[in-house]
């Protein structure tokens, strides 16, 4: 269990450094991915037990999908499918609602079937939402939303002047997803890498040098504590400043 600050609803994690973790041990990158799955299980159950509302994990980007060697992608899909089957029990026992965002329609049927199965199976749970970002890109998400809105305008179902942020948000992959409060990135890179571009606008960022397979409860605690000590202003003035 970790202490989740009251104002923290949505944690999003860029799970990076699997390859470097493996390289440092003279192993293949695939071993790093395999080990990374254990961190996913650890972090998911800890945060679900701790009462977090929403957890999004960046598991595969649209860029990974086209730029990584095919065998690595195949391996990741195999791991994903296995995870979706093996974790059913953990998901249900922890009252977790599972969902996926991204262009998963490009995945093979065998993987999509398991995604649908777990989503369906867990839909009435009312604990934490675990959202996996798969073949996901923040730009693609906005682009897909814009395409859908443009279609509505063309069909006369939407006036361009009526379009506002709320309507656009309603077209994102998961319209119920709250804004990201805390964005965690492992393995030291100081970048967003096309993750949740719309939702992360005022997210607090926390980066650790630790590679994803080594990320555990102690570090999670550090990130949450850091978040708890920050003052968020959303463009306004600091609370303590006199008017
Ligand atoms: C993150 O680890 C997992 C995925 C992107 C699928 P990487 O595979 O990016 O690991 P590094 O960055 O090469 O160490
Ligand atoms: C971001 O990591 C994507 C995921 C963690 C799935 P990358 O390893 O793909 O990011 P870059 O290439 O270092 O920006
Ligand atoms: Mg990486």
How is this structure best described in words?
The protein is α/β, with parallel strands linked by helices. It has a single domain (10-136, 180-230), classed as Undecaprenyl pyrophosphate synthetase, CATH 3.40.1180. The protein has nine helices and six strands. The chain has a six-stranded parallel β-sheet. Helix 4 runs parallel beside helix 6. The longest helix has 21 residues, at 29-49. The mean pLDDT is 97. One 3-methylbut-3-enyl trihydrogen diphosphate binds next to helix 1.
- Arithmetic mean pLDDT: 97
Query: What is the name of the CATH topology?
Result: Undecaprenyl pyrophosphate synthetase
Computed over alpha carbons, the radius of gyration is 19 Å
The string of secondary-structure elements, in order, is EHHEHHHEHEHHEEH
Tell me about the largest β-sheet.
6 strands, parallel
Heteromolecules bound? 3-methylbut-3-enyl trihydrogen diphosphate, magnesium ion
Give the class-level CATH name. Answer: Alpha Beta
Strand order of the largest sheet: 3-4-2-1-5-6
Secondary structure class reads alpha/beta
Give the total of domains: 1
Number of strands: 6
Estimated share of beta-strand residues? 5-15%
CATH homologous superfamily identity: Decaprenyl diphosphate synthase-like
Instruction: Please report the distance between the alpha carbons of the first and last residues.
Output: 40 Å
What is the number of helices? 9
């Amino acid at each position: 269990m970790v202490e989740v600050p009251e104002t923290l609803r949505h944690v999003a994690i860029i799970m990076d450094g699997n390859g470097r973790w493996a390289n440092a041990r003279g192993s293949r990158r695939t071993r790093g991915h395999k080990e990374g799955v254990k961190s996913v299980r650890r972090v998911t159950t800890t945060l679900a037990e701790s009462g977090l509302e929403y957890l999004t994990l960046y598991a595969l980007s649209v860029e990974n999908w086209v730029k990584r060697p095919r065998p690595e992608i195949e391996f990741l899909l195999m791991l994903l499918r296995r995870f979706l089957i093996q974790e059913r029990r953990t998901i249900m026992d922890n009252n977790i609602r599972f969902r996926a965002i991204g262009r998963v329609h490009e995945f093979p049927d065998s993987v999509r079937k398991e995604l649908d199965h777990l989503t369906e199976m867990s839909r009435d749970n009312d604990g934490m939402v675990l959202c996996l970002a798969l073949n996901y890109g923040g730009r693609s998400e906005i682009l897909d939303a814009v395409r859908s809105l443009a279609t509505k305008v063309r069909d006369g179902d939407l006036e361009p002047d009526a379009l506002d942020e709320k309507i656009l948000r309603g077209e994102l992959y998961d319209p119920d997803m709250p804004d990201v409060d805390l964005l965690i990135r492992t393995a030291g890179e100081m970048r967003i890498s096309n993750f949740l571009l719309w939702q992360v606008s005022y997210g607090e960022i926390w980066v650790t040098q630790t590679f994803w397979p080594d990320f555990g409860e102690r570090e999670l605690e550090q990130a949450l504590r850091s978040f708890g000590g920050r003052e968020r202003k959303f463009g306004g003035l600091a609370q303590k400043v006199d008017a």
